Amino acid sequence: MTKQTILYLFDPLCGWCYSVSGGMAKLAETADVKLVPTGLFSRDKIMSPDWSEHAWENDQRIARLTGLPFSEAYRRNILQQPTNFNSFTLVQALTAVQATEPDRELEALRACQKARYEDGLDTAKLDVLAEVLRQIGCTQAAEILTNLAAETQAKQRIADGANLAQQFGVSSVPFAVRQTESGWAQIVSNSLG
Length: 193
Hints:
single chain, alpha+beta, four-stranded mixed β-sheet, 9 helices, globular
């Protein structure tokens, strides 16, 4: 029997996307979940005190609703530092996984989210991402992470994801749809928690 296809529009730096990571993993047990990065946060933005406070308030709300951890190490090392809030390198890492072990891309996303929100690692840095990929055994992806091809493919994925978001009329993530006989049907994100 063919697995049902699910398109998961997301951004790796979106806290709300982190909040549905468990639900997406559960769906992936019985469906073919395709990750579609939209590029929502794929532009350089240096963490400022105002942005940091906004992000932390959002994160605390997500934590209260879901029970997911947002550690003090994350707050101290990421939010309270002038780090670059740009998801492009994360998309590049996921694209390297997609090119080498496509069935592990969702697992890699979850590992990167854990590294950021729980371990307080700056996942906007390629060397940090390469280490995260090595730790979960995606060594081939870690090796090609900095190749021009991975960067070019990541840019194309973001462009394709942005186009798809526009087609669905989506301006925020997470957003998931399942393929049905009559077309695409939205999956309500609060059912993914």
